[in-house]
Design brief:
Blueprint lengths: L2 H53 L6 H42 L9 H8 L4 H7 L8 E6 L2 E7 L5 E4 L4 E4 L2 H9 L5 H4 L1 E3 L5 E3 H4 L2
Antiparallel strand pairs: 1-2, 2-3, 3-4, 5-6
Helix pairs in contact: 1-2
Length: 209
């Protein structure tokens, strides 16, 4: 596959992944907000009726207990549907991410700085590096900047944790972490350093080649 086709495929798959994320966001409020709320209100009404009978010391109709159990069962089904649906969408997203990164190499001499930078703009770039074992969870990064030495680590979900002046800061991407401390737009892969197998500090972009 040539570079142009590879970039087109990557763009299309990224669009699909974003659509899946949006779908996950849409389905949760629907299941939680609409269906669940409706059943919860019905259950609340039944419980009020049962309490009313109990308060007046009248026999509680068996049908109310059956209806209550039925509503509880339906609420449980709604919860399971949400979990299963969200899990399916998540696994589909992971699968597409894997396919995307199979077609956009992330290691090896074939990948120059420009291609590496383009690949790194994908929101799950660092996460996939961790999943593929290219970077280990907790891998340390550091950089001297503006008279300070900043140290951080790559979290299992691909986010970047760096010790700030007063607290631990967590960034969504390697580039946003670099921008915060450099105080300008920079390539995070060139900004941050990590140690190679010889314990030598090298740019992250060099380490990934």
């Amino acid at each position: 596959m040539n570079l142009d086709n590879m970039e087109k495929l990557s763009k299309k798959m990224t669009e699909i992944i974003v659509s899946i994320d949006n779908l996950i966001c849409d389905v949760k409020p629907f299941i939680n907000g609409f269906l669940r709320k409706e059943k919860e209100l019905e259950l609340e009404t039944i419980e009020k009726k049962i309490n009313s009978f109990s308060f007046s010391k009248k026999p509680i109709p068996e049908s109310l207990f059956k209806e209550k159990e039925s509503l509880r069962f339906e609420l449980e089904k709604i919860e399971n549907v949400q979990k299963d649906y969200s899990k399916f969408l998540f696994l589909l997203k992971v699968f597409l991410n894997e396919m995307l990164f199979e077609n956009v190499p992330i290691t090896g001499n074939k990948l120059n700085n420009e291609k590496l930078y383009k690949a790194s703009l994908h929101p799950d770039f660092m996460k996939n590096l961790v999943i593929k074992g290219v970077l280990r969870p907790g891998a340390e990064i550091e950089r001297n900047c503006n008279g300070r030495n900043y140290k951080g680590k790559i979290l299992p979900d691909g986010k970047i944790s760096v010790k700030g002046d007063s607290k631990e800061l967590v960034f969504e991407t390697i580039h946003s972490a670099a921008k915060h401390f450099a105080e300008k737009e920079v390539n995070g892969l060139d900004f941050w350093r990590t140690r190679n197998t010889f314990n030598k500090l090298v740019r992250l972009s060099v380490f990934l080649k």
